[in-house]
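DM from R.C. (forwarded with permission)

"hey, sorry to bug you on a friday — could you get me a structure for this? deadline for the figure draft is monday and I only need the backbone to look sensible"
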Amino acid sequence: MRLRIVIGVAALLVAGCGTFKHQQQTYYIEEVSSDRQPQPEPVLRAQVVPTAESTHVPLFYYSRTWGGPYSIVFSANVKADVCTHYLLHSFRFTADSQLVEEQLFPSPLSLSLCGSEIGNRNNHALYRHRLDDSFEFVEGRKVELEVKYERPDGLGVRTILFHGVGEEKKSSTSLFSAYMSV
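My reply, with the result:
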């Protein structure tokens, strides 16, 4: 009898018998090249990042929900031997042509990419600005992020635009499939 119980528990641990649910409400924004000049490496990126909430009952249920409050995160892909910085002058975030957030820095904010602790990282976060709780997700809403920044390469202040649309994704699968895909 004990052997059957042990085998049953082991099978549950390996296979998982529950459900994995994922729900994401976010704004995927992409850079729009206005002056047809690609950014020099490393590339400054910006994202509208939702907050994640998880509910987990081992072996039976795991749920991850992404939604508000949202933040704007500036990041760059970094290699260990890169040492540079950005000077962030301002950013302006609009949704459906309505101003959501505008930040003008009296003296440019330095975003440093130097240091041995960085290592090789994708999207190393340089600065995070939390949006007001009043900014909510609306599917199909068009957002635009305009960023003015400077690099030490002598090209002066540059403006980059990011456009995006609110998207909602929902999925549900077995825990076994979720565990095996990791």
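R.C.: lifesaver. Residues 83 and 114 are 4 Å apart (CA to CA).
me: no worries. The radius of gyration is 21 Å.
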